[in-house]
Design a protein that fits this description.
alpha/beta, 4 helices, 6-stranded mixed sheet
């Protein structure tokens, strides 16, 4: 299985699986400002560019991640616009039940995206929902 990876050290990584028409993102840093993730939008654009319309996205937010800074919501919105334009079919987000503040922030950002995004506190349920036709 072919995998292409993009990352910002200590912040996130993206793995692209063209044969599955899917990419996975994991956030594990303290994204306080745009400077902490300068290549994020570029990486999402490259990942989406490797996939066909109808692609899936799985996002995992690690327990050690800090709530994102307000200034990066602009970058999150830009990446969601790229995903939408690229034909994202579904995005499942797994976030630890312990991360209440991050879940609240995420719920606001995802509602504004126009994408089919659902937030889960159970990783298996997130993947199952995402892979349903």
């Amino acid at each position: 299985m072919e995998v292409t990876k993009f990352e910002e050290k200590d912040q996130y990584h993206i793995e692209v699986y063209p044969d599955k028409n899917r990419f996975d993102m994991a956030f594990f840093g303290h994204m306080k400002s745009e400077k902490s993730i300068p290549h994020y939008v570029e990486h999402v654009e490259k990942a989406v560019g490797m996939l066909k319309p109808g692609h899936l996205t799985f996002v995992e937010i690690a327990e050690k991640s800090a709530p994102p800074g307000f200034s990066i919501t602009k970058l999150l919105k830009q990446s969601q616009d790229i995903m939408k334009k690229g034909g994202n079919r579904k995005t499942a987000v797994y976030i630890s039940p312990k991360l209440m503040l991050q879940r609240m922030t995420l719920n606001v950002v995802t509602k504004l995206s126009g994408l089919d995004i659902k937030v889960f506190t159970n990783k298996d349920e997130a993947v199952k929902w995402m892979e349903e036709e």
